[in-house]
Task: structure prediction
Amino acid sequence: MARAQINYACQSCGTSYKKWQGKCDGCNEWNSIVEEASITSETPKGLKGKKGRAIELTNLSSKSKPLPRLLSGINEFDRTLGGGLVPSSATLLGGDPGIGKSTLLLQVVGGLAKAGHSCVYISGEEAADQVAMRAERLGLRNTQLMFGAETNVRDILTTLAVKKPPKILVIDSIQTMFVDHIDAAPGTVSQVRSSTSELIRFAKKRGTAVLLVGHVTKDGQIAGPRVMEHMVDTVLYFEGDRGHQFRILRSVKNRFGGTDEIGVYEMTGLGLEEVSNPSSLFLADRTAETTGSAVFAGMEGSRPLLVEIQALVAPSLAANPRRAVVGWDSGRLAMILAVLDSRLSLGLAAADVYLNVAGGLKINEPAADLAVAVALLSSLTQKPFPNKNIAFGEISLSGDIRPVAQAEARLKEAEKLGFTEGLIPNRSKFGTSTLKKNAISKVHDLLNIFDIHDKKTRSEDY
Result:
């Protein structure tokens, strides 16, 4: 006979415990461990002598016909997925509250419905009238999109099994879903894991592409057990700053395409509009000849992207000068400041340093090191970096400027937007780009660019 066994699980990372404790040892979160009841069997473990079903085995040389992609008509979304939705796939979309996750997916399934695909949108957070109001604002009121408001996974799958299964199923959100054979509240680790497993099993069996909306924690990670991200085929993050109208859809896992692809959108009164040329949009408000500013030619997946990096170096009388970073890694900034201080003796350790990536974009690649160093020196010397110049390159601890990947694509994007010269690492492979190159090999070469001769005099100013 089955009996209920009480255990405890962390709601942030899913770590299990035999008894309650205040702090989770797995993720260091406080007050995230709650009681859960799991059903265990008193019968001995094993297969009880029953034989399993023989499965079909194939070799790696056998090829199956690739399934056609489902195109939503939103090019930025299809690009992020690697060319569109794959049938029988499971996609998890996470993002901050109010960032536009529901709006984006409603536009996606609306475009798929207009293309003739059967779509079902299940909401566990909103009523039908609320979704209908948003659909009318987005111009999707007359599309053949079916909607339901339900949180019971068993009822949802029973409803979908009555007729031909839909091509696309949206679950908004997975934290509101529950399976009735588990004695736990919706949003707990066991409920999220079981609900995701049931929906993925339905997707693989019936050929439906499932889109799951996931809440995020205060650290920006998708809430719930970490195993949920391993279960799905694709994980997308919808990022953005409330102070900017830009939104970034970023792929961090994709079994059917490349990772680190991004889609750029602009939030308007009529919903999200895709941005086909994000470089020009991020540089639209840039003024000419500004100190403490440099344009970085970066790469997001296979797309080159130009963005402005702003820096401010100010004198400080505090014992511990302030370091404020928006859109970049604060640890990386500390390393760049240490290299500049050690190799060039600029005295930056005694100054307040502020760094900002314009437009609300977050940069992760080390190729931005050189552009950050240029912006810092421009602010320190009050000499602007030429307005039509770009910079990219990785700075090592020894002060060397190292080449980065896809230099040719970065230079061609800058050339297309009217830039005339690039500050790049020596030995870079720039291909057929006709942009003028200023190649440097060490951070000491930056002294000549900003005409810094007496380094000791500069260090005494701070």
In short: The mean pLDDT is 86. The domain at 75-276 is CATH 3.40.50.300 (Rossmann fold). Residues 98 and 359 are 18 Å apart (CA to CA).
